[in-house]
Design a protein that fits this description.
Number of domains: 2
CATH architecture of the largest domain: Alpha-Beta Complex
CATH superfamily of the largest domain: Medium-chain alcohol dehydrogenases, catalytic domain
Distance between the termini: 15 Å
Helix content: 25-40%
Oligomer: single chain
């Protein structure tokens, strides 16, 4: 089958690979719509996961089931499905420990374009299909559905990890597509003031659409100084990091109040350490909690997010700024995520 792959660090291209085979609990899916992610950029062009050779890229997809294993009960060929980016192995001890995202090892629930071939092929494999697929209702557009697989769930997880309480002031650092969904998640969880931090016009407009009450443009001066000015020197109750480089933890620690939480869903693709400022962390005793996590995966998570779209609680299609029709456009869409042109939020490729 034809596939778009990482050939090595800084190298991508089209290759031929064998069609995957379904085990008894698995499914084979044909993609209907896919979207490249900034994580793919970190993986290929920063070598964030180390060397990968002929690894099919992509972890955001909706598709049509073409084959199921003999033990699959709830899905059949012809079903349209949302495929989460995180597809855990559900018969692992980590599931019982409450961290299915790390089933089989740290980050091992994230399989596509990490430890197994991704979704940018004519077909792709889904392990534990009954637990990792979700039926796609006919009335939800493909472009909205494909945003659920990673952007929505990861952004919302940033808001969940931040332990937002009613009336909290929240800063979202990085209002790319994940950060925009963190803004939306913070609003759903009851935040009062939501400060979005970014610079591109398309992202600022989208942030305001999803619930940002204030915008801080990092090009206008240090983020911490601007937020302290906005909050009368008090800082914010919660910070969600959804973008920026490894030094951003310094800023987050500075702007969060004692007793507050810093939540990270950003993919730090470079560097060996993440610095924390000693004095701003109260010499380690300021009760400023720092937590980071890989988004939950699996069927239940996707079904809940689908219901948020179905009942008009969130419209993720607003994230999609560029649409391509035809499998051959995957490379162009991927490079758009690398170059981040001014009017881009997310591209979607409809596979026809």
């Amino acid at each position: 089958m034809k596939s778009f792959a990482m050939l090595g660090i800084n190298k991508v291209g089209w290759i031929e690979k064998e069609k995957p085979v379904a085990g008894p609990y698995d499914a084979i899916v044909r993609p209907l719509a896919v979207s490249p992610c900034t994580s793919d950029i970190h993986t290929v062009f920063e070598g964030a996961l180390g060397e990968r050779t002929d690894l099919i890229l992509g972890h955001e997809a909706v598709g049509e089931v073409v084959e199921v294993g003999k033990e699959v009960k709830d899905f059949k060929p012809g079903d349209k499905v949302v495929v989460p980016a995180i597809t855990p192995d559900w018969r692992t001890i980590e599931v019982q420990q409450g961290y299915h995202m790390h089933s089989g090892g740290m980050l091992a629930g994230w399989k596509y374009s990490n430890i197994k071939d991704g979704v940018f092929g004519e077909y792709f494999h889904v392990n534990d299909a009954d637990m990792n697929l979700a039926h796609l209702p006919d009335d939800i557009p493909l472009e909205a559905a494909v945003m659920l697989s990673d952007m929505v769930t990861t952004g919302f997880h940033g808001a969940e990890l931040a332990n937002i309480e009613l009336g909290d002031a929240v800063a979202v650092i990085g209002i790319g597509p994940v950060g925009l969904m963190s803004v939306a998640g913070a609003k759903l969880l009851g935040a009062s003031r939501i400060i979005g931090i970014g610079s591109r016009k398309a992202l600022i407009e989208a942030a305001e659409y999803y619930g940002a009450t204030d915008i801080v443009n990092y090009r206008n001066g240090p983020i911490d100084e601007q937020i302290m000015d906005l909050t009368g020197g008090k800082g914010v109750d919660r910070v969600i990091i959804a973008g920026a480089g490894s030094d951003i933890l310094k800023t987050a620690v500075k702007i969060v109040k004692p007793g507050g939480t810093i939540s990270n869903v950003n993919y730090f693709g470079e560097g060996d350490t993440l610095p924390i400022p000693r004095l701003d962390w109260g010499n380690g005793m300021a009760h400023k909690t720092i937590i980071g996590g890989l988004t939950p995966g699996g069927r239940n998570r996707m079904e809940k997010l689908i219901n948020l779209v179905k009942y008009n609680r969130i419209d993720p299609s607003r994230l999609v700024t560029h649409k391509f029709h035809g499998f051959e456009h995957i490379e162009k869409a991927l490079l758009m995520m690398k170059d981040k042109q001014q009017d881009l939020i997310k591209p979607v490729v409809f596979v026809e």
